[in-house]
Model the fold of this input.
Amino acid sequence: MRLAAYYSHLNGLEFLLVHKPALWDEVQSVIADTDAEVCHTKVSAEKTKAGRMLYSPISMNTEFKSRFEALGWKMSRTSYWVTEDARLVRKTMQMSPPDQKAHIQAAGLRRTSRQPASGPYTHTTRPIS
Done:
């Protein structure tokens, strides 16, 4: 596989490049060493693509997971309230959920939706109009 694009959540890529370049090298290595054709296993059931072979996201995740685990990586999740203010997210991430909620609401934001994730819930907030 090749890395065609990236999204740097909370400047995570920039942090890796500056503070943990060896980790970024491992990520690039895992991507480069993964054979995309092994993941070309999904048969489409969509009306416009019926019967076409597609890349399976589940297969890709399985491939990546096994390659990262072989390098000693482990899954870790953090549950926190999300807001459009990145500074506030960084400030509140390590607080308990009730404290996060209080700080975000004190900043003039409110919860508008709660979306289940595979694991902890992610709370999405928007500014109060």
